[in-house]
Design brief:
alpha/beta; 6-stranded parallel beta sheet; 341 residues; 7-stranded mixed beta sheet; 13 helices; Rossmann fold; 35% helix; Dihydrodipicolinate Reductase, domain 2
């Protein structure tokens, strides 16, 4: 049992960009120790790991799974490894933090869910935007009834530059690697499940992406079970920076957030009015949110409470992404199947 004062020992799977981010954030938290990082290419991160005084830098995940001192496993490895790592960690009795998406297969994800429940471990999915103070305030304005009944939810999410084609080949497509965050935000802010998805999309940024069976530009419409409607617009390339905006419109008003800028200074002259561009990308835009999500995860473990972003949340976002892909391919609206506990 992990008491309030006991140090939580962590193992991290994956020493890529997101794994390093989580490690560096955890090292700032009290009573948290990152004991082991496992990555098949760990030699690429040895200098970084040693500089942080990580005790064990290894290639094999079993070094983490077989260590009785490790309480928590952070899964930051490629998506196609998630299911195996989730089930191994759960069977070892370790609590789990897993980056999105859980997997590319609904059947495999549901099987992992059963393994988690059987072993009675906690599992949080890494939808960090829930923990951003701006998005959280919009959600509160909606859930508290300040804008009345929700009628329209509008989400804009555009990356500053497209990924390389090798990434596109293995990412599961734009809906899985990018828009899945927006699908989660749609559920989070609306407080309702998505019942139907309809998609129009194209490859307007890089036509080569279409040859890989994917798109880089999309308009997605949503129907919610509570009757509200939603629209998401996505692009792989916004030349002016990371474009992250949201508006919730209801019977009594509206609530919205604009892009985060480096400063809020506006310069007005006789020639022009100017202000800073949006922050460059997700590491800058959501840094505080990444810290908040792991803090709340550890709080849930110490206090034996439900994690704030559950495995079911991961399942539903994944199902919406799968339905969006089906809608794009069929050019028809697609129903989203809810999950039964």
């Amino acid at each position: 049992m992990i008491t309030m004062n006991k140090k939580i020992i962590v193992g991290v799977l994956g020493a890529g960009r997101i794994g390093k981010l989580h490690v560096e954030n955890m090292l700032k938290l009290p009573n948290i120790e990152v004991k082991t990082i496992a990555d098949p290419f760990i030699e690429n991160a040895e200098e970084w790991g040693k500089a942080l005084n990580i005790p064990n830098l290894v290639k094999e995940p079993k070094k983490i799974m077989n260590d009785p001192e490790i309480d928590v496993v952070f899964i930051c490895s490629p998506t196609d490894t998630h299911i195996e790592m989730i089930e191994a960690a759960a069977n070892a009795g370790k609590n789990i933090f897993c980056e999105k998406p859980i997997s590319f297969s609904d059947e495999e994800t549901l099987h992992a869910y059963e393994v988690i429940k059987k072993n009675n471990v906690k599992a949080q999915i890494g939808f960090n935007r829930r923990f951003d103070k701006n998005f959280a305030r919009v959600e509160d304005n909606v859930s508290s009834g300040k804008i009345g009944d929700l009628h329209i939810l509008r989400i804009t999410s555009r990356d500053p530059e497209p990924p390389n084609l090798d990434y596109v080949k293995s990412s599961g497509g734009m809906f899985m690697d990018m828009t899945i965050h927006d699908f989660d935000m749609a559920r989070f802010v609306s407080g309702s499940e998505v019942s139907e998805v309809s998609v129009m999309g194209n490859s307007l940024v890089n036509p080569e992406i279409s040859k890989l069976g994917d798109i880089d530009t999309a308009i997605i419409t949503l129907k919610f079970e509570n009757g509200a409607l939603g629209v998401i617009d996505n692009s792989r390339e916004a030349v002016y920076g990371y474009d992250q905006r949201i508006e919730a419109f209801g019977s009594k008003g509206a609530t919205e957030i604009e892009n985060e800028l480096d400063t809020r200074v506006k310069l007005s002259t006789g020639d022009s009015v100017s202000e800073d561009q949006p922050l460059h990308f997700f590491l800058e835009r959501y840094n505080d949110a990444y810290v908040n999500e792991v803090e709340q995860f550890f709080y849930a473990i110490r206090n034996n409470e439900e994690v704030p972003c559950t495995f079911k949340d991961g399942i539903m976002a994944q199902r919406i992404a799968q339905a969006a892909k089906e809608s794009l391919m069929s050019n028809k609206p697609v129903k989203v199947k809810n999950i039964k506990e």
